[in-house]
Design brief:
The chain is α+β, with helices and mostly antiparallel strands. Helix content is 21%, strand content 11%. It is built from two helices and two strands. Helix 1 crosses helix 2. The chain is elongated.
Length: 76
Amino acid sequence: SSSATPYADFDQSYDPINGLTYASTASRYTVQEGDTLEAIALRLWGDASFWYLIADANGLTGTEPLVAGQTLSIPN
């Protein structure tokens, strides 16, 4: 083609991921005694390797100890 299309041509099944399609944004989790980011990720998502998503959403590096009663934001 010798000309560009100025827009993306998606079919009718296209569903944008923009945060506005969810009923709510991030949820909250209250840390319990002995919790780690890995344990929380395993409990919530079934995969401990996603701990870094929780850390990133809360401005943590993953090396800080979690304190019982601390509230964490859990990303979608």
